[in-house]
Amino acid sequence: QVQLVESGGGLVQAGGSLRLSCAASGRTFSNYAMAWFRQAPGKEREFVAAITWSAGSTRYADSVKGRFTISRDNAKNTVFLQMNSLKPEDTAVYSCALQVLPGPIYRYWGQGTQVTVSS
Question: In the predicted model, what is the mean pLDDT of the chain?
Answer without folding.
Answer: 95
